[in-house]
Amino acid sequence: MTGEELYTNILRKKSFLCVGLDTDIKKIPEHLLSEDDPVFAFNRAIVDATAKYCIAYKPNLAFYESGGIKGLQSLYRTIDYIREHYPDQFIIADAKRGDIGNTSMMYADCFFREMKADAVTVAPYMGRDSVTPFLGYEGGWVILLVLTSNKGADDFQYIRDEEGTPLFCNVLKKSLEWGGSADNMMYVVGATRADMLADIRRTVPDSFLLVPGIGAQGGSLAEVCKYGMNSRCGLIVNSSRAIIYADKSRDFANVASERAQQLQSEMALFLK
To answer: What gap in Å lies between CA 200 and CA 193, rounded to an integer?
Structure first.
């Protein structure tokens, strides 16, 4: 999917919502546990309930890898289901990979050729050769971790060099030398760091930003839009727990739909 196609979909749906599929079998409604594949049954219901309000899904791979072969089967079934029934959706493999070149090549093959994801999250700590293998796939996107919302982010991301520039800004600048563009590289910026978005936009004015942390983590959609939106929206805002775990009864999908619709309605106001 190109950046222009993504933007067209955002305008058509009046939404830049991404639903995070962080599916924990211990948190899904009990009545689904009798299904042959409870995780897939849950995901399918969530996707059917939210697809018209969002433009992307982001399965967090750790939640599926923890289940071994069965978990991976649930993941692949989920992606295949989205591809078949909602082909306009942008699928992000939230894997946070990053390793030496030949290992990254294998990861890239897995996500883009086997899994058929549109994008994969990548940790840039090992530098150029850990990222560039992901950039060689037509229609595939790298989403680089830059500024996150977790407490540990302060351990490294805000360390300043002799000129007073924080590390996350230097990561941004260096990434521009790796052959990516605004049509195949995005950046993760946590919603609770919205005050830093203006600085980030000065370095990557045209790129899309994946912004987690709206909802359960307390990020402000208005602040994110104020500092992060560009001429083609430039934002994919993720919400996971606030949508998928909004209810644990048999009505969980309807409640998830309501939460997604509420966010979509708020987003529509910023796209006018």
So the answer is: 11
